[in-house]
Give the backbone structure.
Amino acid sequence: LLNWLTRFGAASLLSIVATYVVLRFTQRGSLKRKIERRIDVPELSSAGSLVAWGIAGTGVALLVASGVGIDLGLPTCLAAAITLAAVSMSEKVLIWSTIKSVSWGVLPLVAGLFVLVEGLEHTGILRALADLLHIAAARSEIATAWGAGVIVALATNLLNNLPAGLLTGAAVNMAQVPDKVAGALLIGIDLGPNLSVTGSLATILWLVALRREGLDVSAWRFLKLGALVMPPALLLALGALALVG
């Protein structure tokens, strides 16, 4: 954690501040509207309390797993299953409503993205990308960090950051690039999806949740705002990494 904070702390802070400033400015009209201040806040149910504890416990479990070098997939799945089981013991109907509310249509999408990655790996394109990255980093580490970070950030919106992240990680391992270049690629994978709705699985799930509540955010509307939000956050983060990393 300390190593991460040393390398990415400044980059994270600057990207968060930049994102806030741009959103605060672009949404100033909506934020000035009158809002309802007298809102009845329902008391948190026992099931809600269990979910809150489950989320907190999951966070702790993931930090511990990350600290000891364990892949996060299994701990996340186990924590979710334990939380769901605990809540379902207090409310028997909850497990069925939870199963019904899961966005099952996203699962084939995720599976397809993994198939895409495997297919690209077998075409030899991954080896070519790794060689290109290695040659570029040998010529200029700083220029490669900036260029690769921006290119990957844009690529996440074409491929989605899940396959883009898997391909980038594999290419970095093959190329054995300097930490600064690897860090820039990581920043691109993380901030690039803020540009469009296709950038990340989280955004797709967010849109599904909004539509379930009767709200709709078009891809064009998201892109117009993302084009203002993403670039300054990305450039400031890459600049901070170049100075600190």
Remarks:
- Residues 1-20+46-102 form one domain.
- The chain has a mean pLDDT of 87.
- The two ends are 15 Å apart (CA to CA).
- The CA atoms of residues 58 and 80 lie 8 Å apart.
